[in-house]
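Sequence, please.
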């Protein structure tokens, strides 16, 4: 496994574009999180300090940082599809197979890199969230700090699942632009399915069906925290309440899609003439 990861890392860091995108995918969400802790004065009219909203309090900070950091995953998605696209365009895939790398090892090397970077991203978000929470949170008891830390697990699974989907699309399309295009097509199709079932049946059934679709199931792992932030300011308003928890069945759905996408990537590559 280490050998395969080293092989892929060498390829990635020899590519200038990949290095820039990897840097952006890690640094940009961190900058946004850290800047949110700074007081911003808008030309003397008013001062914005998001910390006053309680967003850095434990345990809500785990929810907020993982949700917004996941929004930047598109940058690394470009890296994933480029890993495959470059293999075809540069003819390195065929050369790797000639040199003794099996097709199974080829797919696994890509998947291991996905897991590797997803794990690094999760660790970074954990450290930054913990430090911000310890500095700004009104609650520093250990029992409160570790509450809802499952959002980090959901964040990791979400990244691995999404990038595995990108891996499959990259193998399917062979070209980075086409793979990213298919990604947006799938997003549109999932909403079309929601609309069609809602039209033919009812909205609740449509939502349940949509929850099992790839992109929607990944998004649902960590639901938006904005409503929860408002709830902390108006706790008596029952109209604001919603289910924001991480559910085990949601994780299982994404794990299923992850395994399926990796398997389909291998089967597609195995049956394809190079």
């Amino acid at each position: 496994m280490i050998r395969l990861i080293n092989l892929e890392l060498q390829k990635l860091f020899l590519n200038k574009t990949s290095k820039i995108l990897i840097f952006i995918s890690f640094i940009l969400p961190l900058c946004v999180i850290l800047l949110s802790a700074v007081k911003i004065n808008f030309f003397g009219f008013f001062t914005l300090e998001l910390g006053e909203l309680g967003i850095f309090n434990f345990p809500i900070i785990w929810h907020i940082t993982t949700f917004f950091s996941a929004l930047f995953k598109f940058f690394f998605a470009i890296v994933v599809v480029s890993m495959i696209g470059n293999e075809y365009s540069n003819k390195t895939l065929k050369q790797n197979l000639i040199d003794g790398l099996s097709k199974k090892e080829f797919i696994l090397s890509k998947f291991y890199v996905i897991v590797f970077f997803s794990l690094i991203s999760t660790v970074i978000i954990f450290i930054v969230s913990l430090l911000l929470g310890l500095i700004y949170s009104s609650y520093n008891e250990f029992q409160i700090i570790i509450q809802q830390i499952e959002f980090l697990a959901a964040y990791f699974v979400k990244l691995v699942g999404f990038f595995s989907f990108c891996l499959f699309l990259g193998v399917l399309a062979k070209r980075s632009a086409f793979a990213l295009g298919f990604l947006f097509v799938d997003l549109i199709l999932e909403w079309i399915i929601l609309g069609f079932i809602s039209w033919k049946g009812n909205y609740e059934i449509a939502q349940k069906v949509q929850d099992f679709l790839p992109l929607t199931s990944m998004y649902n792992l960590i639901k938006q925290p904005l409503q929860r932030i408002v709830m902390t300011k108006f706790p008596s308003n029952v109209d604001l309440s919603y289910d924001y928890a991480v559910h085990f069945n949601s994780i299982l759905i994404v794990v299923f899609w992850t395994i399926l996408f990796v398997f389909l990537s291998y089967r597609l590559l195995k049956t394809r003439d190079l």
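Residues 103-136 form the longest helix (34 residues).
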